[in-house]
């Protein structure tokens, strides 16, 4: 298993694979800002925009590979406001459904933390859906809950789930 930080060309080259991964994760109910069913065209448009942001230096894109297969991804949005030059926000941690429970998410998170340090961003934040397995994983990786908002995010069943927000100083 290997994790790579992709440059703009690398990001553009995996847009199709990332679009399929996003669609598949959303179909399984992952809390990724989208609700099922997600059209592949919408997922492609999303990743095309993220590739542009990588090219502009606004975000870092990390991709995990297992035996040559795209296994997962995570992004770091680099804060751009003058009062937050030290901050980054973790977004879209996803692991291919068939490759879960193999340490891919943990490896991606550790790599994202190292990438944040390398980018001079020692204050990192993220959000998760309350009760998801990711919430427990973030705690196990040393992230600190800094807030919870009841009913923050809509779910596929038509209800609302809590949003849980975490911070980590690296």
Helices and strands, with pairings:
Layout: E1 2-6, H1 8-13, H2 15-27, H3 40-55, E2 59-66, E3 69-78, E4 87-95, H4 104-118, E5 123-129, H5 133-140, E6 144-154, E7 160-169
Parallel strand pairs: 4-5
Antiparallel strand pairs: 1-2, 2-3, 3-4, 5-7, 6-7
Helix pairs in contact: 2-3
Task: Kindly name the structural category.
Answer: alpha+beta
> What separation lies between the terminal Cα atoms?
24 Å
Q: Please give the CATH class.
A: Alpha Beta
Weakly predicted, low-confidence segments: none
Query: What's the number of domains?
Result: 1
Mean of residue pLDDT values: 97
The spatial strand order of the largest sheet comes to: 1-2-3-4-5-7-6
Largest sheet: 7 strands, mixed
Percentage of residues assigned to helices:
25-40%
Radius of gyration using CA atoms only: 15 Å
Listing every helix as H and every strand as E from the N terminus to the C terminus, the arrangement reads EHHHEEEHEHEE
**Helical segment count:** 5
- Write the CATH fold name: Aminopeptidase
- How much strand? 35-45%
Quaternary structure: single chain
From the spread of the alpha carbons, the general shape counts as: globular
CATH 4th-level superfamily: Gcn5-related N-acetyltransferase (GNAT)
How many strands appear in the DSSP assignment?
Answer: 7
State the CATH architecture.
Answer: 3-Layer(aba) Sandwich
């Amino acid at each position: 298993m290997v994790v790579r930080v992709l440059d703009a060309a690398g990001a553009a080259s995996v847009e199709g694979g990332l679009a399929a991964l996003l669609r598949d994760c959303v179909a399984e109910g992952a809390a990724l800002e989208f609700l099922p069913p997600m059209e592949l065209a919408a997922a492609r448009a999303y990743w095309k925009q993220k590739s542009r942001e990588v090219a502009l230096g606004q975000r870092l894109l990390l991709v995990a590979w297992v035996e040559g297969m795209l296994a997962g991804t995570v992004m770091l949005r680099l804060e751009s406001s003058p009062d937050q030059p030290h901050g980054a926000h973790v977004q879209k941690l996803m692991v291919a459904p068939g490759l879960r429970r193999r340490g891919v998410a943990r490896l991606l998170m550790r790599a994202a933390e190292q990438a944040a340090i390398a980018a001079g961003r020692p204050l990192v934040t993220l959000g998760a859906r309350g009760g998801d397995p990711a919430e427990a994983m973030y705690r196990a990786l040393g992230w600190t809950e800094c807030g919870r908002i009841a009913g923050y995010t809509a779910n596929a069943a038509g209800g609302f789930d809590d949003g849980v927000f975490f911070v980590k100083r690296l």
